[in-house]
């Protein structure tokens, strides 16, 4: 057993590519060796900026000899068969072995020396290496077929035991020599064997193990900050990146001018991290301190004084820029910034961000005025305080986790509170995107929202408005905070509904893995917002609003723009009571058909898209609920009722259904239902997909009395079980309908459960297929009534099992 | 500099002279700046056009760069609308390019035992030149002092062979070497002339012109004319002349940007137009030299 070492030395490998490169190296090598029947007892990989290394421990010195037998013709077979076999195997007759009258070709493959296998594997792995981006270089690149590597490849160390595995790739011959640290030890370092590799390079100021480098940085940085009475803000990504940028990491603490702390801490941290790859620190109070930790790649002769000074200066210049942006931005009211949004294209077909803001602002106001979002939304029943008590603006302090209203209707809000909330929601929506044109967000796009919140607060906006601007992108992903402050909820929900509705309106839907506008994430946001805050929202209304506005906007901007806008202005003139003279009338008459055409096209398109949008929400809900352990067939069963676009109500129904089908009554009712449905299906009496009125929340009384043929007196004497089922239905139908109307879905299920025994008894005692056509018809109608009663709650045919 | 025994750091012009000396000794043709406004040293035909084709080419030069949107009226210690790049192009890229580069830093007085030099991933792309390459930004104590690139494509053509490009930010490097915090405080020479003496008023006036005064109608007109003239040159099979017009269009576009009259939507269209001109000039250059196949 022998160890193998491979080092591929190159110019600096991007830090972010190193982890995957190690994996790929191990994987590709294992594949090449497996082809020869070799396996290593242990595989270790290392990456530094300048080298990618692999150690395979415990390789056999040679591959196993293999003996392969190929069965040939019988010895007695005609000569043509023998000739064919000899041709195929390339052997002669006397090389074949005869056994039991059959000829065999025996192919003895002797074992190969492992270095020989390795010498073939190395170039194969190098040429097949899947760098995310690779390049050509040097004189050889006169041909585009020249070797590609992440950066110019400079050396190959390949040792099997202590012997060099001789290979040559793109003019680079393997050997035992590498180089040490670029500045501390630029000379050659000869490696004796794999066992020697790590220590030989350590002596040459190279820590080859990336984990060791990360540990050195973490420990060193923590110690340096502790010594200064500070704590390090840990950042694993930054740690790995710095480990990937250094061969001999030396963390150094520096200070910056405390004046810069007037810039928001998020900005300082982002500047330090993204631009400079520095860690930041907190002081004893947990506030961001005027200190940073940079990671040098050398043990400087002066202890790092010049390095720290240089880095301080660079950070100071960055912070000066950031402060310049911040101060400049602060001077411009967000309202004024918002007027520039008409210069930013949101989407080619959807116009500018200003167009989007207009739609969102209207929708946010509507959500409040319709009572969907109330002053008490998301705050339990206590604080109907007109859109939120003032809150400290520091994001960390913002209490975002209010309990949603625990059942029951939200408190009746005063009209003044509603009006105030509506104003705040609209205002926040109108300002929410204004920070996109600020210098700071131009520099750091990831600070969108956050900066708007800072500027709004500084410019005297109400705290609820400022917080809504700050948080309206939330929730950004699963696990992100879900806003509960009513103003924020209004803007966040309106923004997301608009994005979904508008993109669907122009036919931009997610397909497969493609979701370029993150509509799935937006939908999940809508689900989280409605669920967390218990919002009673019928999706159709807002979706129609935004998609109509988006589509009309698109058409107006599109080919018919001149006609449509002329038409619109005339129409609005008329609406405004302007006097219409003869010439204008002519124009109107000429344009009217065009406008109608546009509107007609739009409305059918909107209807079509609306169905797709609701399906999309249903899918998202299924995904979300499946992750929460809800059966997707139950969701289907409820969605199949159609007409249900209130996600909270829908979910309540699903949950009740899930509980019900788990009970004996539920399981048996399902069985009875299926039996009834099957009989009806055979008779061609398919369910008329009842547009279920159940759950019409505002019209408490709910159901129209059902036309119930089987209860309207029979023309023959009912059998007892038949009569019992009629009676049970007479009682259960209104009870279930009433419960559904009250959104008491458990109650509805309980009402259905009363049918279970009568149905079972009916099937036991009554023959549906009676010779008397009147009886048969009446009994089929009775079964249809059973089915329809069940459908009032959920489409049981969708339920599995 | 606090250490009185330390040698006096190089002035701005002395640094340039050292770099000229160094790269001259390493076989480069030392060229002078191209006499047109451009946003980066890469636009100089000695890089863009010479990078194309199979012939070896080693050159170094200073190129004044104009980035109108970076103007700060002389009030920002780090940002200028006019500054200098030192540009080195070596084709094919030599195997010891990194060492050569580090040698040039040593030549202008950077001590690599007390300073932290790092090669940090930074892939370069010029949408207006249809060009890209892989390489790094070179950090000295956390400051980017050089863009180091192995060109892979220029004008949409694969590099055969690949050229190595070094672009030094001269002001930054000088601020670093001279240890000053404000660009205008740089010693331009050793006879008492500062960078501010030479350029401060220039920055003030040009920032005002770039942002506030430049006649946008005339700029739009100039853009159209440059584009048309580029086509004219292409028809006449004069790729170098065509390329000059592409440079002109590119700079005019930059001025229009600074005047804030190009919307986000139009921006891509303008960049695309300049790229088409530059690519067409590169293609014509390839063809004229018989490299197009």
Automatic annotation (TrEMBL), chain A:
PROSITE patterns for the chain: AA_TRNA_LIGASE_II_GLYAB
The keyword Calcium is assigned to this record: no
Keywords: Aminoacyl-tRNA synthetase, ATP-binding, Cytoplasm, Ligase, Nucleotide-binding, Protein biosynthesis
HAMAP family, per database record: Gly_tRNA_synth_beta
Record-linked Pfam families: DALR_1, tRNA_synt_2f
PANTHER family in UniProt: GLYCINE--TRNA LIGASE, CHLOROPLASTIC_MITOCHONDRIAL 2 (PTHR30075:SF2), GLYCYL-TRNA SYNTHETASE (PTHR30075)
Residues covered by the DALR anticodon binding domain: 672-789
Family: Belongs to the class-II aminoacyl-tRNA synthetase family.
GO biological process, one term: arginyl-tRNA aminoacylation
Assembly notes: Tetramer of two alpha and two beta subunits.
Biased composition (Low complexity): 390-406
Name the UniProt record assigns to this protein: Glycine--tRNA ligase beta subunit
Gene Ontology molecular function terms on file: arginine-tRNA ligase activity; ATP binding; glycine-tRNA ligase activity
Record field: catalytic activity: tRNA(Gly) + glycine + ATP = glycyl-tRNA(Gly) + AMP + diphosphate
Chain spans, region Disordered: 379-416, 694-715
Entry's Gene Ontology cellular component terms: cytosol
UniProt gene name: glyS
EC number: 6.1.1.14
Main localization (coarse): cytoplasm
Gly residues: compositionally biased ranges: 379-389
InterPro entries for the chain: DALR_anticod-bd (IPR008909), Gly-tRNA-synth_bsu (IPR015944), Gly-tRNA-synth_heterodimer (IPR006194)
Enzyme class, broadest EC rank: ligase
Compartments it resides in: Cytoplasm
